[in-house]
C-alpha cells in the first residue's frame, strides 16, 4: 500500500488534475475542507513509477459504535475499466479499514450509469450498488446533473445553443442593470444571508457561514471563485464555483426574494460558464438536479432552470458500497436514520 505524503503530494495533484476522471473532491485541498475527517490517499503506480490510479478516502469515527466509516467522494481516479488498478486500490482500502476499524466503504464515482462494463467490474471486486435513487436527500453527492460541453467552444456558440428563453433572461439581466463582480471572503456574509433566504423559500437546509469561509481558505483563489450579482447597489444573487483540472463546478447558489424579476441567476451562470471557457475546460458542471422530471414535482424548477442552458442530462452510476462488518453496519443504519430525522426536524423548527 502506498499513500500520498508531502514527498509525492505534488505528483499526485498533477495526476488528478490531468486525469479525465480527476475531481476536486479527490484533491488534498478538499480534504482540508473536511478536516473533521481523517484523510488517507492511496496511489497505485506502474513499473516506471507513474501514478495510474488513486483514491482519496475520508475516514470518520462513529462514537457510540467505536468504529469508522470510509467514504471516497467521486473516487477512484483511474482508467475505470482497468480492473487490476481498481482492485489494487480497493485492496489497499481494506488494509486501511483494519487500521481504522472501519465497517463500510462508500464511493460515488464520476461514471455514467450506462457504463455496464464498470458496474460488472465493481460487482466482481465486491461492491454493491445503491439503485433507484431519485431525490437529493437520499445521496451524498448528486446522482443526476447537467453537464455542458465547453471544450473548444466560443461564447457565441454557447449562447446560440441555449434555450431561447435562457438567452433572453441573460440579456434582460444586463439591460435591467444587474452587474457581476468577483467577491472576496468578506462577501461570503452577504452570500450567506441571501442563501438563508433561498433555503427558507425552497425548503432546504444550508451549512453555516463558517463552512463557506473554511472552503474559501482551503481551496484558495486558484480554485474557488465567489461571484456576486448586484442590482441598484445591493447584492441580490451569488454563487460559489470551483475550477479543478478540466472542469468548473457550480457548487452553491443563492438568490434574494427581492428583484427576482431582473433574472440575476441567469447572468451569474453565464459568468461561471465564461470562466470555464477562460480556463480552457472541457466541462461546466451545473451539479445536482432531481431525477424526477415531472413538471408537478417540487424540485422541477431547478431542473427546468439548468436545462435551459442545454447541457447533457447525466445520471451517474450512484453509490457503491462495501461492508466489512455487517452487524455494525446494521446498527449504524438503524441509529443513523433515527438521528437524521431528529436533526432535520430540529433544524427546520429552528
Categorize the overall geometry. Answer: globular
- How is the main sheet built? 8 strands, mixed
Number of strands: 15
What portion of residues belong to β-strands? 25-35%
Q: Please, how many helices?
A: 11
Helicity, as a percent range: 40-55%
Class by alpha and beta content: alpha+beta
The average pLDDT is 93
- Cα(first) to Cα(last) distance is 46 Å
Low-confidence stretches: none
- Written as H for each helix and E for each strand, in order along the chain, the element string is EHHEEEEHEHEEHHEHHEEEHEHEEH
Taking all Cα atoms into account, the compactness measure Rg is 21 Å
Please tag this protein with its features.
40% helix; 350 residues; 15 strands; alpha+beta; globular
Structural features, described:
By secondary structure, the chain is α+β, with helices and mostly antiparallel strands. The chain is built from eleven helices and 15 strands. The chain has helices at 9-18, 28-33, 83-100, 116-125, 155-161, 164-176, 188-202, 209-223, 264-278, 300-307, 326-349, and strands at 2-3, 38-45, 51-62, 67-72, 77-78, 102-107, 128-130, 144-149, 179-183, 224-231, 234-244, 247-255, 283-289, 312-315, 319-323. Strands 1, 2, 3, 4, 5, 6, 7 and 15 form an eight-stranded mixed beta sheet that branches. Helix 6 packs across helix 9.
Amino acid at each position: 500500500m502506498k499513500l500520498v505524503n508531502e514527498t509525492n503530494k505534488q505528483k499526485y495533484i498533477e495526476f488528478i488534475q490531468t486525469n479525465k476522471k480527476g475531481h476536486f473532491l479527490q484533491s488534498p485541498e478538499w480534504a482540508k475542507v473536511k478536516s473533521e475527517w481523517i484523510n488517507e490517499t492511496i496511489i497505485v503506480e506502474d513499473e516506471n513509477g507513474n501514478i495510474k490510479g488513486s483514491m482519496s478516502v475520508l475516514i470518520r469515527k462513529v462514537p457510540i459504535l467505536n468504529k469508522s466509516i470510509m467514504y471516497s467522494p467521486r473516487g477512484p481516479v483511474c482508467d475505470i475499466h482497468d480492473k487490476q488498478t481498481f482492485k489494487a486500490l480497493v485492496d489497499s482500502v481494506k488494509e486501511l479499514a483494519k487500521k481504522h476499524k472501519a465497517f463500510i466503504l462508500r464511493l460515488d464515482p464520476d461514471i455514467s450509469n450506462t457504463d455496464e462494463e464498470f458496474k460488472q467490474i465493481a460487482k466482481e471486486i465486491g461492491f454493491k450498488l445503491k439503485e433507484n435513487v431519485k431525490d437529493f436527500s437520499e445521496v451524498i453527492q448528486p446522482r443526476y446533473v447537467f453537464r455542458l460541453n465547453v471544450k473548444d467552444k466560443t461564447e457565441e456558440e454557447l449562447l446560440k445553443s441555449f434555450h431561447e428563453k435562457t438567452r433572453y433572461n441573460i440579456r434582460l439581466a444586463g439591460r435591467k442593470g444587474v452587474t457581476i463582480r468577483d467577491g472576496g471572503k468578506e462577501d461570503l456574509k452577504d452570500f450567506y444571508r441571501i442563501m438563508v433566504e433561498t433555503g427558507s423559500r425552497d425548503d432546504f437546509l444550508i451549512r453555516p457561514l463558517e463552512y463557506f469561509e473554511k472552503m474559501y481558505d482551503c481551496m484558495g483563489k486558484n480554485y474557488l471563485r465567489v461571484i456576486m450579482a448586484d442590482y441598484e447597489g445591493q447584492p441580490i444573487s451569488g454563487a460559489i464555483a470551483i475550477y479543478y483540472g478540466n472542469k468548473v463546478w457550480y457548487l452553491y447558489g443563492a438568490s434574494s426574494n427581492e428583484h427576482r424579476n431582473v433574472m440575476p441567476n441567469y447572468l451569474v451562470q453565464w459568468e461561471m460558464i465564461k470562466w470555464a471557457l477562460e480556463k480552457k475546460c472541457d466541462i461546466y458542471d451545473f451539479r445536482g438536479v432531481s431525477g424526477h422530471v415531472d413538471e408537478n414535482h417540487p424540485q422541477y424548477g431547478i431542473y427546468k432552470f439548468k436545462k435551459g442552458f442545454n447541457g447533457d442530462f447525466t445520471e451517474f452510476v450512484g453509490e457503491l458500497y462495501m461492508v466489512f462488518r455487517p452487524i455494525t453496519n446494521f446498527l449504524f443504519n438503524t441509529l443513523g436514520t433515527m438521528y437524521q430525522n431528529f436533526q432535520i426536524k430540529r433544524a427546520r423548527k429552528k
